[in-house]
Amino acid sequence: MPQPPTPPVPFTPSTPPAPPTSSHRRKRSLSRRGVIAGATAVAGGAALTPVVFAATDSGAAGTTDSGNAGSATEPETFPATRTAAATGPGTATTTFAATYVGVRWSGADGAGIRFPGDASFRTLGGGCATVDGGGTALVAAGNAKTYDVEAPDGTTQVRSLAIDTLRGPDRSVEVPSEPTRVRGVRYLSRPAWGADESKRYKDGQVNSPEKYYALQSITVHHTDTPNDDPDPAATVRAIYEYHAVTLDWGDIGYHFLIDEAGNVYEGRYSGDDGIPAFDPDGDVVTAFHTAGFNSGNLGIALIGTLVDQGPTDAAKASLTRLIKVIARFKGLDPQARITYTNPVNGVTKDVTTVSGHRDWLQTDCPGRTMYDLLDEVRTAASR
User: Fold this and answer.
1) How distant, in Å, are the alpha carbons of 104, 130, 229 from that of 198?
2) What sign results for the dihedral spanned by CA atoms 304, 308, 314, 317?
3) Hey, is 280 helix, strand or coil?
4) Dist CA 127 CA 109 (whole Å)
């Protein structure tokens, strides 16, 4: 998982989930507004039409988000995300069953976590997210109400956050009544996966105001979360909580996410114009997925862990289609070697237009198996 943006974007770092309590609600939401079927996704030459999708509010307290004016919407309920914070190593307990625990620390590597039933501590780190001067991880909690964190000598400022995105009180969101698309590719808008837009705010202000730059590159990630996910929308909400609040990035770090069924999810908020990831001028909003190289770099994350297994056929097909339409939209060659130049500070990096996270930084992301498939994806996206 991702990293903080490059200056001057203002911010400061600060057993799989159980099935959802209402599987009918989840399936209805996906089929009505966002499912990408393997054979029906892209009209390659379709126009980038601003389809209203963004649900925003002023960040004020309340349980209802409002859709864009002029769009046809209907209310849908999602469980509010519940969290419980703890500091330091040792045992932490919650009053609810946690789906994930986010951990962050400063100093030495080697922090670990243990849940009831674990024979030993799991070593944390090596996932997609990195932070300066320490480490971080988002770990599936298997509905545990207690967990233990250990930290080696030299580790300081250990913080953890238990997250439940399945069973909190209902919150109502105005969701577009019609499917939302980007150049013919259907996707679930932020309201369609239950994004709580107030989490983008801190002390009454947008935590990471949007900045836009010309698109130069596309980076592929995996989320390093469990495979065979029974409720990927709930996982997207957990990643959002972890990135926006635990890591203090102010939003989810990716521009798009793709689940194992091939469904595409809108990630980083980019404005109310109805164009995901881009502004009306066609510039991409800076997100938080590749530290030091975020501006002008679009991040797509496959939901799951792709170290020892590859993506599903549906996920790989959706990834290829999404890259293809974005590359055509911006006139990019997915197979070209480029010199990326950070528009903020001038730092350069030689990469392929479509790269893996590990091409930029020392990380396992997007997983060894997915990384080995990138040439195949580039070739298919170039046709």
Assistant:
1) 22, 24, 26
2) positive
3) coil
4) 13
What span, in angstroms and rounded, lies between the C-alpha atoms of 316 and 302? 9
The 3-state secondary structure of 9-60, one letter per residue: CCCCCCCCCCCCCCHHHHHHHHHHHCCCCCCCCCCCCCCCCCCCCCEECCCC
- Could you tell me which of 304, 315, 76 has the C-alpha nearest to residue 190? 76
User: What pLDDT digit, counting tens, does each position of 291-344 carry?
Assistant: 999 999 999 999 999 999 999 999 999 999 999 999 999 999 999 999 999 999
Closest CA to 302 of 232, 381, 207: 232
Integer Cα distance of 140 and 118 in angstroms: 13
Beta bridge partners of 38: none
pTM of the model: 0.83
CA angle 107, 110, 116 (to 5 degrees): 125
Q: Is 233 helix (H, G, I), strand (E, B) or coil?
A: helix
- Distance (Å, whole) CA 320 – CA 33: 21
pLDDT above 50: residue 221: yes
To 5 degrees, how large is the angle CA 217–CA 201–CA 147?
A: 90
pLDDT at residue 131, as a whole number: 84
Measured at the CA of 241, the angle between CA 253 and CA 126, to 5 degrees, comes to 60
